[in-house]
Design goal:
The protein is an alpha/beta fold and 214 residues long. 35% of the residues lie in helices and 18% in strands. It has seven helices and seven strands. It has helices spanning 28-34, 59-70, 76-90, 107-113, 117-129, 151-158, 184-195, and strands at 36-40, 51-56, 99-102, 137-139, 162-164, 172-180, 200-208. The strands form two sheets. A five-stranded mixed β-sheet has the order 1-2-7-6-3, sandwiched between helices. Strand 6, helix 7 and strand 7 form a beta-alpha-beta unit. Helix 3 (76-90) packs across helix 5.
């Protein structure tokens, strides 16, 4: 398994292009501005054993995440995944889980975008850490986009929208998603995985928004 450290990168910082010591392609100044977090997000009554976020959803992170998610700047995937991999090692999750999985997208939306950003992050993470990746969730129905919905509306919107697939019986899984706002998506994923027989589900997101909405 890869030790914590830098991904191979040349050409200076991805943001300011300074040729200085880099961490996963970012210089110390830009990394500080990104809002590196790397902490547990506490949610009373959660179905997840633990949930961790690598960054707070700062304005700078939002800018480059949107390039990654909406404008096909997929070269950001290994940058973000590098920090997520570090969080896995820092928190000892590599010793607690059997497989890494991710939140799926509706097929029509994934075809339109060309990729599932959460799956892409998960693929890069397992590549870095030499872990197993499995598609353990599938969509059971379409639902509205979550943007602009309050916490209770997000939970209602996602209710029973996922189900487990494949062999998850008795497994401890790490569930990857991109941005955590209310936690509704991760909770629905954990519900479906545990209904399918998973023993434990941990969550890891790239970033958590400033306030977990109710």
């Amino acid at each position: 398994m890869r030790r914590k450290g830098n991904l191979f990168h040349r050409g200076g910082c991805y943001i300011c292009h300074q040729d200085v010591d880099l961490t996963h392609g970012l210089c110390p100044h830009c990394l500080a501005s990104m809002g590196l977090f790397g902490q547990e997000v506490f949610r009373p009554g959660s179905l997840l054993e633990r949930t961790y976020a690598c960054f707070s959803y700062s304005d700078l992170l939002k800018k480059y995440f949107h390039l990654f998610k909406f404008q096909h700047k997929t070269y950001w995937a290994p940058v973000f995944a590098g920090f997520m991999a570090d969080c896995i090692l820092d928190r000892g999750l590599d010793k607690k889980i059997d497989q890494v999985t991710y939140i799926p997208m509706e097929k029509s939306r994934e075809r339109k975008r060309g990729y599932n950003q959460s799956k892409l992050l998960a693929e890069k993470i397992v590549q870095i850490l030499d872990m197993d990746l499995a598609t353990c969730l599938e969509k059971t129905r379409p639902h509205k986009a979550q943007v602009g919905l309050r916490g209770w509306q997000r939970r209602t919107n996602l209710k029973d929208s996922l189900q487990a697939q494949g062999d998850v019986e008795g497994k401890s899984l790490l569930l990857i998603d991109d941005i955590m706002t209310t936690g509704a998506t991760l909770e629905e994923g954990a519900r479906a995985l545990k209904a399918g027989g998973a023993k434990a589900v941990y969550g890891l997101v790239l970033a958590v928004s400033g306030g977990i909405q109710k």
